[in-house]
Amino acid sequence: MAKMITRREWGAKTPKAAYTRIPGTAGVKIHYTGGHVPPAILTDHEECGKLVRQIQSMHMAGAREQPYIDIGYSLAVCPHRRIFMGRGAYALPAANGPGLNTGHYAVLALVGSLGFTEPNDGLLQGLRDAIEWLREHGNAGNQIKGHRDGYATSCPGDPLYAWIKKGAPRPASPTPETVPVITKQTKTTEALVRNLPVLKPGDEHRHVKTMRGLLFARGYEPTNLHSTTYGKDDTDLLAKVRAFKEAKKIPSGKDDLVWDAACWEAALT
How far apart are CA 234 and CA 208, in angstroms? Predict the structure, then answer.
């Protein structure tokens, strides 16, 4: 069974209000982070806690259209077969979608659509552990579904959803809960950056939203986290980009508002 990391251990903020209590659920829905999850998460467990804290901050700040009272998930699972306590058992989650939260607990897998995208055995074992924990401690039923079941989304990504459709089996080889030694960072970020666009004021691109999310995660917190427009009149975003580039000492010349490869690399590492 995976080690349970308490809210105190991962540094959770206090919820803004009391949870709505529920008697149990029909089962569990699996989610993923979407966006970029740094490959360093596989060799540096500190990245796992950092990511959970970032997600809680974004949820409470309104990254899901309206602010949540806390992180929206019941539990979160990392690739080292560890479980982070979210809202926990008998508490209404907020991540499944309007009208869908009473039906299933929400379990987040720390895997994305960029960077670390293929769930490893440690993550899959941890997800099974989380499901069993919710069945034992939260009166969860036998259903195991993906976020996309009943809600229009790509979550939890194709690899995880294929695993769910197979019945969410445990990997054949037992995977102990492990925290690996930090190793030298790979060149994965460099490869990712080559596939990301250069953005400038006036551009409309899906990765403008990615840029906004990364700025938020690095403490620059744009007011709008959803827009795919890098607006010339968006003074808030323009100021955050300029401040980020100045703080990271990214040379810009006259193009101080262009978001280029150097910006992506600084934001992803």
Answer: 12
Tell me which residue of 144, 141, 32, 135 sits closest to 89, measured CA to CA. 135
- Taking only Cα atoms into account, the Rg of the chain, rounded to an integer number of angstroms, comes to 19
**Which of 1.10.101, 3.40.50, 3.30.1540, 2.30.110 is the CATH number of 188-268?**
1.10.101
Per-residue model confidence as pLDDT tens digits over 203-249:
999 899 989 988 988 888 898 988 999 999 999 999 999 999 988 88
The 8-class DSSP code of residue 104 comes to E
Q: How far is CA 188 from CA 146, 184, 193, in A?
A: 28, 12, 9
Side chain identity at residue 109, one-letter code? A
**What's this model's pTM, rounded to 2 decimal places?**
0.68
Fold of 3-165: Lysozyme-like (3.40.80)
Asked whether the beta carbons of 157 and 109 are under 8 A apart, the reply is: no
Which residues of the chain form CATH 1.10.101?
188-268
Q: Could you give the residue range(s) of every CATH 3.40.80.10 domain in the chain?
A: 3-165
Decide the pairing of beta strands 114-115 and 36-37: parallel
Residues 73 and 95 sit within 8 Å (Cβ to Cβ): yes
Q: State yes or no: cis peptide before 23, omega within 30 of 0.
A: no
- Residue with token string 């209000």: 17
- State the helix-helix crossing angle for 235-247 and 206-217, rounded to 10 degrees: 60
